[in-house]
Input
Amino acid sequence: MDLTTALRAFIRTVERGSVTAAARDLGVSQPAITKHLRNLEREVGARLIERSARAVRPTSLGQTFYEATRTGLMTIDAALECVRRDMREVEGLLRVHAPTCIGAKHLHPIVLEFQRKHPSVSVDLVLEDRTVDLVYDNFDIGVKYGRPEGKDIVIRRLGAIRRILVASPDFLAKVGPIESIDRLNEVRVTTTAAVASAQRTLTLTHRDGAVIDAKVKEVLRTNNPQVITNTLLGGHAAGPVQQLLVLEELAAGKLVRILPEYEVKSNDVFWAYPSVRFMRPAVRAFTDFVIPMLRATEGVVVDASHHE
Output
């Protein structure tokens, strides 16, 4: 029996709660995972996994065994990669999760630049606007809006995502200038649930620090950043948008800021990785490469007191 392979199968099955999911993550067949689990149970002389129609979970002995072996296996993986690093090789698979907006426009180009520097690193870049459990979903790194929760997560604050009010020149030609909060109340607005309350109000912060809740005529609410951009570019509505999402459009004059003395509430953005996996050389190299570049992105505001 290959003990290391069997341990990988066991640890992934416990973390995923599914033999099928563990097989998919490890790139082997389901019967292979089952065989590894059976051999491991035979080796230790105890039942480690309970199977039911709905879930796969560790026995009490299995949970103890999992806690004792997961860090040890990650230490072995880290040691192997350290040897490769000392041989001037940073390699392996990185699974990275990020929100669609910052991921597609900004993280993706950085990933390509990183791979030009480290061609032996492959990246599974998953971009979606849902909350994931980095350990359970088998991600090495996550970019997260809002402070992540969980005792097994190490986090580093990247900064705050600036949101501004914009409209297209065509929209402004139709409705006229928007130079006051009262005028904003009168025009069509597109928003997201992240910034607009159920009562259809936007919380705006003036450059002098004053905060005001502005009632808006919300005509489209969506969670998709590309839909927001297309709606704004099409002259259908004005609205708040993450500045980093429309940098090119602002530079080209396809969108313009309205009420530039105001900003919409921002979101903190964090870099996170599972503490239970140690920091493999590829993860460390990627982290050291990406964080300064994301912090330097226009539209990401880094408070000096939080800057590491």
